[in-house]
Amino acid sequence: MKVGYHPTRSKRSLLAGCLFGLCTVAFGQPPRGPLVVSPQVNTDKSVTFRYLAPKATDVKLSAQFEKGLLAMTKDAQGIWSVTTPPVKPDIYPYSFQVDGVTVMDPANVAFFPNERFKASLVDIPGDTPLIHSLQDVPHGSVNYEYYPSVAGTTGSLVVYTPPGYDKNLVKYPVFYLISGTTDTEETFFKVGRTNLILDNLIAAGRAKPMIVVMPYGNIEARITEQKGGAKPTDPTVRDGADAVKRANDFGEDLTRNVIPYIEGNYRTITNEESRAIGGFSRGGGQTLRTAFSNMDKFAWVCSYSSYLSPQEMNGSFSQIGGNPDRTNKQLKLLWVSVGSDDFLYKGTVEFMDYMKAKKVAYKSLVTDGGHTWMNVKTYVADTVPLLFR
Amino acid sequence: MKVGYHPTRSKRSLLAGCLFGLCTVAFGQPPRGPLVVSPQVNTDKSVTFRYLAPKATDVKLSAQFEKGLLAMTKDAQGIWSVTTPPVKPDIYPYSFQVDGVTVMDPANVAFFPNERFKASLVDIPGDTPLIHSLQDVPHGSVNYEYYPSVAGTTGSLVVYTPPGYDKNLVKYPVFYLISGTTDTEETFFKVGRTNLILDNLIAAGRAKPMIVVMPYGNIEARITEQKGGAKPTDPTVRDGADAVKRANDFGEDLTRNVIPYIEGNYRTITNEESRAIGGFSRGGGQTLRTAFSNMDKFAWVCSYSSYLSPQEMNGSFSQIGGNPDRTNKQLKLLWVSVGSDDFLYKGTVEFMDYMKAKKVAYKSLVTDGGHTWMNVKTYVADTVPLLFR
Fold this sequence. Notes:
Two copies of one chain form a homodimer. Chain A is an alpha/beta fold. The first copy, chain A, has two domains: 37-123, Sandwich (Immunoglobulin-like); 141-386, Rossmann fold. Chain A contains eleven helices and 18 strands. The first copy, chain A, has helices at 11-17, 187-190, 194-203, 219-227, 240-265, 282-293, 310-316, 318-322, 324-330, 345-357, 373-383; strands spanning 40-41, 47-52, 59-63, 69-71, 73-74, 79-83, 91-98, 101-103, 111-112, 119-123, 141-148, 154-161, 174-178, 211-215, 275-280, 300-304, 333-339, 363-367. In chain A, the strands form three sheets. Chain A has an eight-stranded mixed sheet, sandwiched between helices. In chain A, α5 crosses α6. The longest helix of chain A is centred in the middle third of the chain and has 26 residues, at 240-265. The radius of gyration of chain A is 23 Å and the shape is globular. The termini of chain A are far apart. The model of chain A is unreliable at 1-31 (pLDDT under 50). β11 (141-148) of chain A pairs antiparallel with β11 of chain B.
């Protein structure tokens, strides 16, 4: 087990590698069977997926562009493969079901950071570059940072700085962007490609240069990890008291620790009109609760595939609908978006109806599709141009 | 498939989550069965690993602190688990073998970035903090960057900047640090914890503040990915001509593209005495070849678990041993390290013997253990204090 996960080493390959005096440093890892190329996006936008498993009896593809599983077939080398029909350009999570076991694609480095499942990512390019594609434009930088967080823990942040940040010694507005339940602080970067969306929008003159701060939404997991103690409760299974505490904990960490850290260490404009907050799913709920509890701190609020119920609005945030003139003056943007197939669609429409009845101004976007990161990218690309105007 | 990888949603949990008016935003992802906590490091440094698979018939743990596989047992919920004996504090790669299929731990966000296998990471803390542990010291930042690379491609880099980089507007020396075959530009950060090693050494006054640049070693894969074309050849299976071309391609990209990008965009000291180069495995070979081909660019050279053969030294780099006085004057440090169980041990000893016979000065460290990232962390922690002195 010392040299990785395939303890057998091919003598033939070692010898082949020793030709021309170039031995051994070529063998940082021992050979791992035939080279598997996966995924391979074909020119017609079909995709060939491959998985090496000579001994498996059943391998299927599970991909978010397909409603069901796709069967794969095995070749003489033991490589299972399937070629899909042409796929609509976007980035999709996928995994393999190998004799019923869910696995990431071992041949693909693009992955979905998440606390509870593991998936790979396939990027189908458009005929013209999509808003999240790597293009030949100036690039910002994505910075992994530590900050002093709650309960003596060290928190982690992913921070996008726009192109030229280190050279143009000016101050920038900040968008705080929170990912969903079981996502991590890396998900908006690795899956949402927020950095590339910002690069492309800024290059096209469609967005103001800004800093984007991506925190980790699961305060409780961080405390358990760093300080030990009780087994964490399941972030996806709630009781009411826990959910209230968690939402408050997150909002307090953001306002008391994250914002002071960012404003102390990055060149930022530090008034509410230069702070936006947004989030997906649980992060959207954290967004709405944090914004409505801190109306002096954020003038731009974006809720992606999430909402608060009329009961919670009336119970905890009655001033929002109760004084719509003040709310509309304080908020430069309240954005609500959801997919028509999202399992949160009905509640989100109810949230919009609530705001409408209370005469609170909001902008909304209802797309096709469900509770997916394909939709999140659309929502980010549609809202970022509106911020800080 | 719209809301993740577990299409069934628990009605009971949905109802439980709707208490106290906190519905639905709690359900960014639907419930995924019982919460699995894995890995769980116990106070005696034993570790409990868990994997949810009610239908699996055989689940085993494959971990780099164990020579063989450890059997796991299933509980009534379908969670397989095993508790190991106490483990020597360090960070170890591991995975599960589920009915013979290798899978990452879905409950663990710490992963091993690699082109060809997927593994999770378990961190066993020491009684006092280890050199790679997250400690309460000033932290540097880890920056993901794009740069214009070979053949019109956009290259990716991970760049560590030391604590205070943005505030102390001074210039820093740079350590270029290259990971192994099938590793990515993330591996020295995510597996090697190079940022934390630097933070801790700098805080203790044991290392000079420096920038560490971690490039991606597989130029050919980048070109294939971005420009299409021929199926890439297997990076772990070499013929001589390919290996020579690849080594040259990497060295040229580093010297012509990476270094100018870093020196144009970071505050760096731009002479050879302020540039170090190091690498593990294939990255160590790339280090030696690039350094010996560019003796005017790097004065500090660190080879971790790698070497060049006497034949290649005599054939391509005869000036190194041929004029040891000049070599010893040019190189402030030539470091060679390897584990006694490393499959490259013999060749590395031969490389040291070659240098000794040629009267080329070098420092060396032979440790226990094999070709592992546990050893890489030791080598980085031992060499960084020597640099730029």
